[in-house]
Each structure stands twice: as C-alpha cells, then as structure tokens.
Specification:
The chain has an 18-stranded mixed sheet that branches. Strands 22, 25, 28, 30, 31, 32 and 34 form a 7-stranded mixed sheet that branches. It is mostly beta strands. It has 2 helices and 35 strands.
Length: 465
C-alpha cells in the first residue's frame, strides 16, 4: 500500500507574498524617488558653498590663529576660504581687510570688513547659495568681536536674504541685512553701531532688548544697564564723501564725478594725468592715474570747497571733534617714498583752513607704498610749512583707511576756525591710485571724567596703654 504524503500548506499564501514584495518594492522605489527629489531640490535650490575669503594686510602685520591655536603672522595676503573658526587680530600699528567674494572667475565682492588697530574677531563661517537660482541665504558669522571695524556691504546679484551677524564677547549682537556702510565698536563697557547707509539692528545680550539703527544714526548699547541709546552720527561736512554717485542710473550708468567735487591736472610735461570715476570692488572710487613712462612732475587732484553764510569756508568753532578719514588703494608708484623733497606722494591729503586767530593754514598728510633702499628720501614734506606729520607707508595693492583722530587735539597750537577746502591728490611721475572715500566728520563729544577713586579711611592710631 502506497502512502500519500501530505504537503503542508504554506503559512503565507503565494499571492499575498507576491503582493507584499510588490508593495515593499513600490515603497522602496517611492522612498528613493522622494529622497532623490528632495536631494536634487536641496542641492540645486538650498545648498550652499563657502564664500571666497581673503585677508589683505593694509599696513603692519596681522595675527591669524587657526584651530591648532598657534598664532601666525601675515604681512601681505592670506586665503582663508577653507579655514574654519579662524581668529584675526591687529595691534596698535596694523590694519587689514577681510574680503568676502563669490568664488568664481570674476570674484565679485560681497562684503569687506576693515579690521582696524587693536581689534580682534573670529570668523565662524561664510557661505552663499550654490547657484544663482538657489533660494538659500548669504551668511557671514563673526564672533568674539572686540575693537573697531568698518564694514562695506555691496549690492548682491540676486534677491536672496543676506545677514552679517557679529557677536561680542559680552553676548551683544549686531545684524546687518542690506547693502551699506557701517562702523562697529565693541569694548567692555559698550557696543556701538554707526549706520552711514543701510540697515542694522543692535541686540542686548539677553536678546529681549533690541533696536533698529536707521541710516545716519548711531546706536550705543550700554552693557551695564542694557540700555540702547539712539542719536545722530557725526556730521559729514563733505558732500558725497564716499563717492557712491560716480555712476548715475538715470543716464545709463555713465561715469561722472560726484556732485561738489572738482578734479584737474597739472604737469611740467606730457603725458597728462587722468581722473577716472569708476566702480572697483563694489566701491565708487575716483582713480588718479598717470603712466606712459612719465619722467616729469605731474599732479592729479580733486577738491571740494566749503561756503557758508555767503562767505568762504565752514565754521567749525561750535564743534569739539573733527576727524578727517580717507580710504585708499595705491596700485602703483614710480618714485620712491614721496620724492626728493617729500612732496610727491602717490596720495596726499590737504586741508586748507583759517585758524582761530584768522591766519591761513594748511595741513598735509602723505601716503606711499614703494620705498627703495637706493634713495634716502625724506619721510616728511620739507617744502611744506609749517612742518607736517611723517608720511605713512602702506602696502601696495591693499585697501587702507586712514583717520586723523581729533584734529582739534592734533592742531592744538593752530586750531581750525573755518575749513576752506579738502583736497586729495596724486603727485610724482607715474602713479595709479584709487580713492574710495574722503570724509570730514564733525561733532561734539563729552569729555571723559574718570570716577573718583575710592578712599580707604586710615584707621586711627592705637591708644596708649
């Protein structure tokens, strides 16, 4: 008798198993499609790339500390694009500029941060949208800021959101989200924002107190009380000091001199110098140029005259603070220093004024980059009267911002009463200089009175017996 083997029925029916495999495969396929779609969307529309970041030293040397915590000194140019959490610091004699650019062939400037003397800051990150159609943001994150910086933010090529965030060691924050020019100060007692043009917000350390700083105003955070004081910034006596109007959109962007500035040339022989309104690195500049192997003396100068109440000059006797500042870039000069008499600097600043006693006066300051060991030319203008300040050497092909400090202190023995004109000019044989700003800031500052010292009472002498 043949036994019949009974085949047990499968626990899962084949048709159910088939449908399960199909559904699982479809789910995996859908997940892959979704993740791929999200990934592609994120890559093309939300991903970011690092900005190109360069440190260019304008004068002196700048200390750079990377993640290994070993300070290194830079005297020229340093690429910081791939560096993470880098600290930059200057001393009393140095200044540098951090340039944030689009990492392409053109290297379009997005922002420039001039790190002034005795300043420290840390660059945490700097990123921008990967593609022109991306919807991600432009982000620059600075930390541990102490000292003073000038910030230039240029117009962006798209409408994506931009924020430059600055955090002080005390926890105060500054947010800048539009093109403009700003000066920031941070120390143990206050954090200050001067908004020359643009938009900025100042936050107290707990973030619950904040205040927008409109253009033309100054916001000061008193750290002891978290109070934010808003007042007017110093008055700029010069019109179009930053040369923002060298191009006029209403005339199809034809270059022109900013209003109230006039330029001219004078030379002993050909070639003739040139003054050229241009836009360089997002800045409106006036370029002072003389080349063609010139071997004779020439000058290219620009001047703005003052007038008030029907007479020449502007009265500054009601102010107790007067500061002349200029931003410059010496691209090339042929003469060493400032020539044989110290009067042919590739850039000179001159202020003509009447002092408080009614005497006509002049004040000069010269700048140069090239200094040949073959010529021992004087470091001052020996033909200028009265004796002037020592000319300043700055680095070639680097932006540098100069400030006089309070001229009422510097010129205490010949105090200005009326300012007649401000002139900047290039002098020498061959020169190529960009001037991005010449400003004369006036105002009143309160004299600082130190708090009285605590007096510890002297204990009485012990009684006899």
């Amino acid at each position: 008798m043949v036994e019949t083997l009974e085949i047990p029925e499968p626990r899962i029916k084949p048709e159910r198993l088939a449908w399960g495999v199909v559904l699982i495969a479809f789910a995996i396929f859908s997940t892959i499609c979704a993740l791929t779609t999200i990934g592609i969307y994120s890559f093309f529309f939300q991903s970011t790339v690092p900005m190109r970041v360069d440190l260019v030293v304008g004068v002196g040397s700048v200390a750079i500390t990377e993640s290994d915590l070993i300070p290194r000194v830079e005297r020229a140019v340093r690429d910081l694009t791939s560096v993470v959490n880098v600290s930059v610091s200057t001393d009393q004699q140095s200044q540098g500029t951090l340039s944030f650019r689009i990492p392409d062939e053109d290297g379009r400037l997005l922002a420039a941060i001039t790190v002034k003397r005795n300043t420290t800051l840390s660059l945490r990150s700097a990123s921008l949208p990967r593609f022109s159609w991306s919807t991600s943001d432009y982000i620059i994150d600075l930390r541990d800021f102490r000292g003073e910086v000038d910030i230039l933010v240029t117009e962006r090529p798209d409408d994506n959101y931009f924020v430059l965030s600055v955090l002080s060691p005390t926890g105060a924050q500054i947010h800048i989200d539009t093109a403009g020019q700003y000066t920031l100060t941070s120390n143990d007692t206050l954090v200050q924002v001067v908004n020359r043009r643009g938009r900025a917000i100042l936050f107290a350390p707990d973030l619950s107190i904040n205040r927008a700083i409109p253009a033309g105003n100054r916001g000061t955070l008193i750290l002891q009380t978290d109070e934010i004081i808003l007042d007017s910034a110093f008055t700029d006596l010069l019109v179009n000091a930053s040369f923002d109007t060298v191009y006029d959109a209403e005339t199809t962007e034809q270059p022109r001199l900013p209003e109230r500035w006039g330029c001219s040339n004078k030379q002993e022989d050909l070639p003739i110098g040139q003054w050229l309104p241009q836009v360089v690195d997002g800045r409106g500049v006036i370029r002072l140029l003389r080349n063609d192997n010139a071997s004779s003396h020439g000058e290219t100068l620009c001047v703005q005259y003052f007038a008030q109440d029907g007479q020449a000059g502007v009265d500054v006797t009601n102010f107790n603070f007067l500061n002349l500042r200029a931003t410059m870039f010496i691209n090339y000069q042929s003469l060493s220093r400032c020539g044989i008499r110290g009067s042919e600097c590739p850039l000179m600043l001159r202020m003509d004024y009447i002092d408080r006693d009614g005497n006509p006066r002049q004040w000069f300051q010269g700048f140069y980059a090239f200094d040949s060991e073959l010529y021992d030319y004087p470091p001052v203008c020996i033909t200028c009267s009265p004796p002037q300040d020592v000319h300043q050497q700055i680095n070639e092909q680097a932006w540098y911002t100069f400030e006089t400090g309070n001229l009422f202190v510097k010129l205490a023995d010949r105090l200005p009463g009326r300012i007649l004109s401000i002139t900047f000019y290039a002098s020498g044989h061959q020169y190529d200089v960009y001037v991005g700003e010449v400003a004369l800031l006036a105002g009143n500052v309160e004299a600082f009175t130190p708090p009285p010292a605590e007096i510890t009472p002297t204990p009485p002498p012990p009684e006899d017996g």
